[in-house]
Amino acid sequence: MRRRLTTIGQLGLGVLAGIGLYILCVLVMLILGGLTYSITLGALLAGVVSILIAVYLVVRKRDATSWPIIGGLVSFSVTWAVLAILDSPSTAFMWFR
């Protein structure tokens, strides 16, 4: 008997993937720019990367894509990026200097 993840389980897996993506992006920003801005910019980078992943999967159009996982990933990453902007607007918009 095959066991499948429920939709809630897939959403939770997407959120866990978002947390992993955030940690990876913070580490990349830490290596590139130091500790000062890495947390906020890592959150922004994770949001952008998760949206790019979702756009790629929409364009690719395969039946095997688990949309609840992608939805959890994108919603967590974008929410985290918005919270990072609200927490530290000057740090978040240092990209545009």
UniProtKB/TrEMBL annotation:
Membrane-traversing stretches: 12-33, 39-59, 66-86
Record's keyword terms, sorted: Membrane, Transmembrane, Transmembrane helix
Protein name: Uncharacterized protein
